[in-house]
Amino acid sequence: MDAATDLTRPTESAQASSPNPQRGREPYRQPGGSILLAATPIGDVRDASPRVVEALQGADIVAAEDTRRALALASRLGITLGGRLVALHDHNEAAKAAGIVEAAQGGARVVFVSDAGMPTVSDPGFRLARAAIDAGVPLSVLPGPSAPLVALALSGLPSDRFAFEGFLPRKDGEATRYLQDLATDPHTLIFFESPRRAATTLSRMAEVLGGDRRAALCRELTKDYEEVRRGTLGELAEDAGDVLGEVTIVVAGYEHSARAEDHVGAVLALAAEGMRLKDAAAEVAAATGARKNDLYKAALAAK
Asked: Is residue 70 left, alpha or beta, with left meaning phi > 0 and alpha meaning psi from -120 to 50?
C-alpha cells in the first residue's frame, strides 16, 4: 500500500507551488453526475497521475475498454477500483453509452479508461463523450500519457504542425491509396502499426512518400526496452525485420520539390494501381510542380 500512498499524496514542493494554498492538499474528488476520460500509463505505471488514481478509487462506475486490464492496473497501483466495473469497448460502446450517461445524469461519478493512453485517440471513448455532450452531462479529461505525443517528441521531427493518422488500412491497395493522399501533406505524420506489419508498412511508405523522407520508428515507449530508430524511410524499412512490441511511426511532412527524382515513387505507385504511366506522371506533376515529361522518363527508367 506504500506505493499507492506515494501516488496519491502531493509532495511538499507541489503544495508550496500551488497557486491555491488549499488546492493539492486534499485528495481529488470527482464531482457527482460527471464523466471523466482518464489517460492511463502506456508502459510505466508510475506515469499514472495522482488525480487518475484518486478518481478510480472514488468512482461510482469505472467503464473500461478491457475490465481485466483495468483490474490489473489497479493492482499495480495498489488500489481498489471504486464502484461498479463495466466493459465499454468498440463492439458495445454505441449500445452502452446511453446507459452510462443516464447513470451520470442520476448523480453517478463515471470514469472511463481505455487499455492504455488517452481515450478516444485510436481507442474507444468518442461515442461516450459525444453522448455526454449531447445530453448536457459534464465531461472532463484527466490528462496523461499518449503514445502519439511521446513519439512525436522523441522523433526529432518538426512538431509545430502534426497529424495523427492511426493505423493504415489493412488491404494493400487501400493502404497505398491512403498514403498517396498524404504524399503532399506538410504536417508531420504519426501512425500506429503492429510489429509484424512494420517492415511492410515502412517499405510502402518509402515507395509512396519517398525513400529519402525522414522518419522515426518508436517502440515500447516508456517501457524497459524503449527504442527509437531515426533515419530515412528507406533506411528504416531495411532494418525493421526484428521489430517487436508496440510500434509508433513518425514521418516528416512533405517539403515542396519540383525535382522529378523525388516523386518517382508516387508515379510508380499510381501505375501499380492500374493507371497509365503517362497519366500517373501527369497527376503527380500537377500536385508537385515537377515536369511531366521528366517524371515519365524517370519512372520508365526506374521500372
From this structure: alpha
DSSP-derived letter for residue 59 is -
The pLDDT tens digits of the residues spanning 18-58 come to 344 445 568 899 999 999 999 999 999 999 999 999 999 99
Question: What cell numbers appear for 143 in the block?
Answer: 490528462
In the block, residue with C-alpha cell 514542493: 13
Edge-first strand listing for the sheet containing 227-232: 162-167, 188-193, 247-251, 214-219, 227-232
Per-residue cell: 267:
508515379
How far apart, in whole angstroms, are the C-alpha atoms of residue 135 and residue 141? 17
- Asked whether the CA dihedral 98, 99, 105, 109 is positive or negative, the reply is negative
- Rounded distance between C-alpha atoms, residue 183 and residue 199, angstroms: 19
Instruction: Count the Cβ atoms, other than its own, within 10 Å of residue 66.
Output: 17
**What pLDDT digit, counting tens, does each position of 119-175 carry?**
999 999 999 999 999 999 999 999 999 999 999 999 999 999 999 999 999 999 999
Cell digits of residue 115: 487499455
Residue 241 buriedness (CB in 10 A; 0-12 / 13-18 / 19+): exposed
